[in-house]
Specification:
Radius of gyration: 18 Å
Number of helices: 6
Number of domains: 1
Strand content: under 5%
Shape: globular
Mean pLDDT: 84
Largest sheet: none
Low-confidence stretches: 1-22
Order of helices and strands: HHHHHH
Distance between the termini: 47 Å
Number of strands: 0
């Protein structure tokens, strides 16, 4: 009887793994200039203003409407008052919106947007269904294995070795304390 109860969970896990594997082909940048993966956040102004406090997320991870919402909330950005002047706020808004997932030619952004309905305005990455699905296992591992050094999903580059280049392929994944580093 116990095996029958585990069958639905096993089928669900297999389905998620197949989806993740298919998405991985579109998340891995196999060469410079590839439109696989995501737009790499390299704008010096954005990296200076936002990357000085946290990983400079690719604008291609969220739709334009989400970035508009972020800019509107800069005075209460996850508990912080950023205090940007109007010119800085507008320059950041323009960069994020112009390179957002729903305006991107990058394959990773297209895959993400397949799971974000037009009525949805995710404010956090974990509000994007595909992100949650692809990080389900690592969330379980973080909760269960004390040797795993990563405790949050807020810095992509901790596990995704080429996140700064917009590449998030499974072959480039290395979880500190769990898997060996596999740099290119």
């Amino acid at each position: 009887m116990r095996r029958c109860a585990l069958l639905p969970a096993a089928v669900l896990a297999a389905a998620v793994a197949l989806q993740a594997g298919a998405a991985d082909d579109r998340f891995f940048k196999d060469r410079p200039g590839s439109t696989n993966g995501f737009f790499a956040a390299r704008d010096p102004f954005y990296v200076k203003e936002c990357g000085s406090c946290h990983f400079p997320y690719s604008p291609g991870l969220l739709p334009a409407r989400s970035w508009e919402r972020y800019v509107q909330r800069f005075d209460s950005h996850f508990g912080e008052k950023l205090g940007f002047d109007d010119a800085t706020r507008e320059k950041l808004r323009a960069y994020l919106v112009e390179n957002a997932a729903d305006r991107s030619s990058y394959e990773g952004s297209k895959v993400f947007m397949e799971r974000v309905g037009p009525e949805q305005t995710p404010y956090r990455l974990n509000e994007v269904r595909l992100f949650r699905e692809m990080h389900f296992i690592i969330n379980r591992v973080m909760a269960s294995y004390p040797r795993v050094k990563v405790k949050t999903l807020s810095d992509c580059s901790v596990c995704h070795q080429y996140a700064a280049e917009g590449s998030f392929g499974n072959s480039e994944l290395a979880v500190p304390g769990l898997s060996p580093t596999t740099r290119r």
